[in-house]
Amino acid sequence: MRSRKSWVMALALTSVLALSACGNNGGNNTANGGNAEASNAPTQTNSGAELSGSILASGSTALQPLVEQVAEKFMEQHAGLDIQVQGGGSGTGLTQVAEKQVDIGNSDVFAEEKLKDADAEKAKALVDHQVAVVAIAAVTHPAVGVDGLTKQQLVDIFTGKITNWKDVGGADQKIQIINRPASSGTRATFEKFALGTKTEDLQGSIQEDSSGTVKKIIGETPGAIGYLALSYLDQTVQTLKYDSVDPSVDNVISGKYPVWAYEHMYTNGEPNETVKAFLDYFLTDEVQNGDVTELGYIPASKMQVSRDVAGTVTNK
Amino acid sequence: MLNNKIAQNHKSRIEKHHIEDFIGRSYMSFCVLLLIVAIISMVYFVMSKGISTFVVDKVSVSDFFFGTKWSPEGSNPSFGALPFIAGSFVTTLLAALIASPLSICAALFMTEIVPGWGKKLLQPVIELLSGIPSVVYGFVGLSVIVPFLRNVFPGQGIGVAAGSIVLSVMILPTITSVTVDALSALPQNLKESSFALGATRWQTIARVIIPTTLPAILTGVVLGMARAFGEALAVQMVIGNAPFIPKSLFESASTLTSVITLGMGNTTMGSPQNNSLWSMALVLMLMTFLFVFIVRLLEKRRAI
C-alpha cells in the first residue's frame, strides 16, 4: 500500500513536469494566433513579427503589483509571450539584471545608488526605464495634534533632537519613530528628499519593511510618526504637510512637493525587441492613465519636472 | 535438456527480480545522493558567503561578534552584530521558559491525568497550532498581544516580550508532542510499581515519570528552541527591529532572522552589507547545528 502510494506520487510529479513542458511548447506554437492589438505598441510597426518567448523580471516589491498587472494584460494581447514577475527587493533585482539572470530588474532607486564602489561598473551597463513615480508623505498617529512639519522639524525628530510632540506645537506626547530598515528604498527616498540627510537608527525606534504593517502600527501607536507612499494613506493616519505643501498628486506632478522617486525598470544594455515592446507598452497612455493611476502610482509621463541621479530637478 | 530449460527459466526469473531490486536501489541511492549534495552545497554556499565579510570586506571578527553598532549604510559603516545575536538568544530563551511548563503540563494532562477525553480534545488542538502559518501568528501578535502589552506595561508594546510570547505559542506544539510521545512510551509497570508502593498520583508524576522522561522532555525543549531561533516572520512583525540591545523587555529590538529578512532583498549581492547578512545566516546555521548536536546527546541518554 505504502509503496503504491509513493509510486503514484512519483508518477504525478513526472506528469506535472511533462505537462508544464507541454504547456510551454503549446504556448510557443500558438503564438501566431490573432494579435490585432500588437500594432498598438509603437515598436511593432516596422516588423510585423509576432512577439514570443519569455521575459523574466524581478526586484522591488513596491513596483511588483504594477508590473504583474501590466504583464498580465500584455500577455493577453500576445499569446506567445510568457512574462514572469518576481519580488525579492530592489537590491535583488539590480544584482540579477546586472548578472543577466533576469531580463528586467525593478528598482525603487537609481542603480548607481545601490551598485556602488566595486560594483559601479555594473551600474553603467544598465539602461534605465522610468515607468512610474511614487510620492512619500510623512504621517502620524491621528491624535498628535500636528498637521504639518517643516523640513528642519522633521530632521530634528528623525535625528532624536525633538522627542515630544509639544515641541512642534502638538500634544504632550512622546514621539515614537516608525522607520524602515537602513537598506529600504522608501527610507532612502524619504531621507534624501524630505530630510536632506542620512539618519542613524535611534534606540527604541521601530523598523518595519512592509507598508501595511507600518500603517497599522502608526495608526495604533500613540505619538507615532513614519512615512508612507501616497497610495497607502487613509483615515487611520494623519498625513502631514511638508513645508506647508500638501502631498497631493497634483503637487507632485507640478514639482511643488519634493518627496518622490521614480520606479525604475532596468535592462542590461539596450533591451531586445520583446522586452522593448513590453517596456514601450508600459509608457502608452492606456497603461499610464489606467493601471498606473489605478494602483496609486503617479504616471511618469505626466510629470512636469524630471530628476537625475544626483537629485537635480529640471522642468521638462 | 529439460534441466537446462528449468535452469534458464530460473535464471531469467532471478534476473527480473534483480532488475527490480537494482531499479529500486538506484532510485533510492539517487534520492539520498541528491539530499546529501543539496545539504553540502547549502552549507558550502552559506559558509563561503558568510566568511567573505571577514576575508573580502576586512571586517574584524571581534567587531562583528562584539560590536554593538550596526550602521551598514552610514558614511563610516560599522557591522556590529551583537544586538541581533543577543536579541535572538533572549527571545528564544524567554520563549522556551514560557512554553516549557505549559507544554509539559499539557502533555501530562493528556497522558496521565485524563488520558481519555483529555487526549481526544487536546491532541487536535495542539496539531492545529502547529499548522497555523507564522504570518498569522505575527498578525495576531501585532493585533492582540502588542496592544495588550502597550496598555499594561510602559513602552509601545512592541519588543522582546511580544516576540517571546508569540514564539512561545509557536513552539508549544513541538514541545508538547515530543513530551507526549515520551510519556506514552514509558513502561506501564514503572507507574504500577510506584502506585503499589502507595505513592499518590502527584508523587508518581513528580518522582517517577518526570525524572525518567527528562532527557526526552529536554529534547522537546531544545527542538522548540531551534524552531524559535530560526523563526523570522512572526518575530519580525512584533519585535520592532531597532538594531540595539534593548534596555527593557518592552523596547524595540532585533533578532538575527529579522535583520536578515529585512535587509536581504534590499541589498545587492556582494556588497559589504549583504555579506554581513550572510555571516549572520552562518551564525544561525551553526546555532542550528549546535541544537541538533544537543538533541543527539540527549537522545543517547534517553534509553530507559
Largest interface: A-B, 38 and 37 residues
Which topology of the largest domain in chain A does CATH recognise?
Answer: D-Maltodextrin-Binding Protein, domain 2
H/E element sequence of chain B:
HHEEHHHHHHHHH
Sketch the major β-sheet of chain B: 2 strands, antiparallel
The tally of helices of chain B reads 11
Give a quick precis of the structure.
Chain A: It is a lipid-anchor. Chain A has helices spanning 2-29, 64-77, 90-98, 111-114, 120-125, 151-158, 185-195, 211-220, 249-254, 273-282, 285-294, and strands at residues 53-59, 81-88, 104-107, 126-127, 130-140, 148-149, 176-179, 206-207, 224-229, 238-239, 241-242, 260-268, 298-299, 305-307, 313-315.
Q: Which descriptors apply to this entry?
A:
heterodimer, A: about 325 residues, alpha/beta, D-Maltodextrin-Binding Protein, domain 2, eleven-stranded mixed beta sheet, B: about 300 residues, mainly alpha, two-stranded antiparallel sheet, globular
Descriptive account of the structure:
The complex is a heterodimer of chains A (316) and B (304). With 316 residues, chain A is of the alpha/beta class. Chain A has two domains: 53-132 and 260-315, 3-Layer(aba) Sandwich (D-Maltodextrin-Binding Protein, domain 2); 134-254, D-Maltodextrin-Binding Protein, domain 2, CATH 3.40.190. Chain A has helices at 2-29, 64-77, 90-98, 111-114, 120-125, 151-158, 185-195, 211-220, 249-254, 273-282, 285-294; strands spanning 53-59, 81-88, 104-107, 126-127, 130-140, 148-149, 176-179, 206-207, 224-229, 238-239, 241-242, 260-268, 298-299, 305-307, 313-315. In chain A, strands 1, 2, 3, 4, 5, 7, 8, 9, 10, 12 and 13 form an eleven-stranded mixed beta sheet that branches. In chain A, strands 6-11 form a two-stranded parallel ribbon. Chain A has a two-stranded antiparallel sheet with strand order 14-15. Chain B has helices at 2-55, 61-66, 82-113, 117-131, 134-152, 160-184, 188-196, 201-230, 233-239, 256-263, 272-300, and strands at residues 70-71, 78-79. The model of chain B has no long low-confidence stretch (mean pLDDT 88). The chains are: A alpha/beta (316), B mainly alpha (304). The A-B interface holds A 61, 87-92, 94-95, 98-99, 114-116, 118-119, 176, 181-185, 198, 200-209, 213, 216-217, 220-221 and B 70-75, 142, 146-147, 150, 156-158, 237, 240-244, 247, 251-252, 254, 259, 261-271, 273-274.
